[in-house]
Amino acid sequence: MFHKLFAEFLGTIFLVFTVFASSGNYLMIGAALALIVLLLGKITGAAVNPAIAFAYYHSGKINQQELFGYILVEMIGGLVGYILYKKYVNK
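Above: the chain's sequence. Below: its structure in token form.
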């Protein structure tokens, strides 16, 4: 399960960083999300969002333990993505 959580963590970092760094450019955000789905889709389903993880739980794709893990790493990944943006892009 560690590799799934780590993949969700990295995907969330990348998505959040892209959202902030692109100033909301929907084409860049869509391209980043497409890349995340392409790379992580087979491993985790590429939720990268607690709401999507919750939907996966209700559809039976993940269990309760995975749900809590996904939500935790996605929240931490979002914070790390924002911190990276603030440190390297918006000084």
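The mean pLDDT is 95.
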